[in-house]
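In the current project phase, the collection of sequences with tokenised folds has grown. One resulting record follows, to show the layout:
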Amino acid sequence: MKKRKAILWFLLLSVGLGPPLFSGPDGPGEIISIPGTADARRDLHDLDLDLLMERDGRIFVVAGPDDILRLSARRVPFVIETGSFAPARPGELGLAGGINGDYHSYKELEADLKSLESAHPSIVDLHTIGTSLEDRNIYAVKISDNVDRDEEEAGVLFLGCHHAREWISVEVPFLLARWLAEGYEGNPAIRELVDRSEIWIVPLLNPDGLEYSINVYRYWRKNRRANADGTFGVDLNRNYGYMWGRDDQGSSAEPDAGDYRGVSAFSEPETRAIGNLFLGRNFLAAVSYHSYSQSILYPWGFTDIPTGKDDLLRGLGLEMAGLIQTVNGRSYACGPAASSLYVTNGDLADWTFGVSGIPSYTIELPPVDIQHGGFFNAEDEIEGVFRENLPAMLRLVEFAVRTR
């Protein structure tokens, strides 16, 4: 079992970009590429490397010093690509508000959510649905008329930031909450949807991981679970109970892996908080936001066997993709997760669909690949990414209302 050591990530001196941008005791250190051969794929599976993408016949992964040594021992040819995909420096992204700029930290989001509730108490109710390992609150915003009562209305769940490095996935659901709250009084269409539904928004499921990504290591993915072998983190989107760990494909049993699924289903307080929220309400649709790849994915993630509701899932997904494209012209692919992206098990969309049969989606936000920025969306893209997703969000609420 390998253990991470303190390293400096992004060795950018060699490409003339100044001192390293990120470092951390638990983060892998280099983006490398490996030929996309069958043997290489087997090696990547055996070593549980953090897959970023495939392009031009090569597989790009994040690999730490120990990974590189093990690849060398197996005689796997690789090329260090870190400099080719380095993000802009903070000043170049205009991060005047701190290292995270216009992106929310945990404290900033907490303050904005409380302000939203204070400004719109008749339709916004802020709930603490659980606490993280490091004792940060996990907030859920309920938006509805008669917001202080549980009514027999259609519930829709929008959720962000399972994975810490996916900062844009916090902003899109948060901006939905703000848009609904601020537009309710003056927009009859918003009022009708809100009055006939209960919209639940969890912008930040992984607050500990987000803080670590902001302050220590930008590429951090998991939560901050202290594992028994000295490594850190569980992949929260591999920790849900439906087909958890099935066939040992689509998640890892190794604690240092990027997709480590934990010691058991719902072992993490963050996923338990979502489980309790979901099972206690009448949800009729759910979306989990991630980045990147511009994709709308639906069950199953654990297998390519049809769900029995593929026509509904695909039809609604394609409709949402079409609505998104009308805004900024960006195309989002749509398909079942296992055959469209890669096999997963224990993810949120499979679980919500598996236990309730409702339309459940993973939406991978822009960009389309790491070459166009990967996890590093510029600040001036935040509003545009939200705006292009807004019609699809509203369509899903409308679907739930009509289904009810």
About this structure: The chain has two domains: 7-86, 106-403. DSSP finds eleven helices and 14 strands in the chain. The mean pLDDT is 86. The first helix runs from residue 38 to 47.
